[in-house]
Amino acid sequence: MKCTALIPVLLVLSILLSSCAQPTKGGIGAAGGAAGGALIGQAIGHNTEATLIGAAVGTMLGYMIGNEMDKYDREQLNHVYERGVSGQSNAWRNPDSGNQYQVTPQPAYSNPSTNQPCRQAEIQSVIDGKVETVYSTACRDRNGRWQLQK
Q1: Cα–Cα distance for residue pair 139/111, rounded to 1 Å
Q2: What's the mean pLDDT in 128-146?
C-alpha cells in the first residue's frame, strides 16, 4: 500500500476515534458514512483500495451531513428526493443555522442488487461562508424513507 493510500485510512480512523470519545452528530454521521462507503467501495471495486476510497468518501459525506444538517434540512432533502423534478435545483436556507443548500436531483432508477428505488443528487451547501459540493445517492428503505447511501 502506498503512503498516499494511507491518508484516507488515517482520516477515517481519526474521525471514528474522535466520535467514540464524545458522540456528536458529525461523528455518528462519519461512522455511518464510513461503513456505507466501505461496503459500496468493496461492492464496486472488489479490492482493498476501492474499500478504503469508499470509506473515505463516505466518512466525509456522512460527517458533513451529520454535522451540518439538522432535522429541518433533512426534511427538505427528503422532500427533494421524493418530489423534486429531475435536473431542477431546489434551494433553501435553514432559519436556525443560516446554512444554505441547493439540491439538484437526477431521475430515479432501480438499484439492480436490491430493487430499491434510488436517486442521485448534487448537493451544494454554503456553511460559514464556505461552498461545498457533494454528489450523493439515496434509496428508499422498507418504510419508504429516503436513506443516503454514500
Answers
A1: 8
A2: 90
43: closest CA among 105, 119, 112, 110? 112
Cα end-to-end span (Å), the chain: 24
Residues in CB range of 117: below 8 A, 6 or more apart: 108, 109, 110, 111, 139, 140
Buried b (16+ CB within 10 A) or exposed e, 113-131: eeebebbbbebebebeeee
pLDDT in tens, 19-66: 444 444 555 555 556 666 667 767 787 777 777 777 777 777 776 666
**Interatomic CA distance for residues 26 and 32, integer angstroms:** 10
What's the gap between Cα 88 and its chain centre? Answer: 20
**Amino acid, res. 89:** S
Residue 64, all three cell numbers: 458533513
Distance CA 70, CA 29 (A): 12
Give dist(CA 43, CA 51) in Å, integer.
8
d(CA 48, CA 6): 12
In the chain, where are the structural domains located? 3-68, 86-148
Task: Give the number of other Cβ atoms within 10 Å of residue 103's Cβ.
Answer: 21
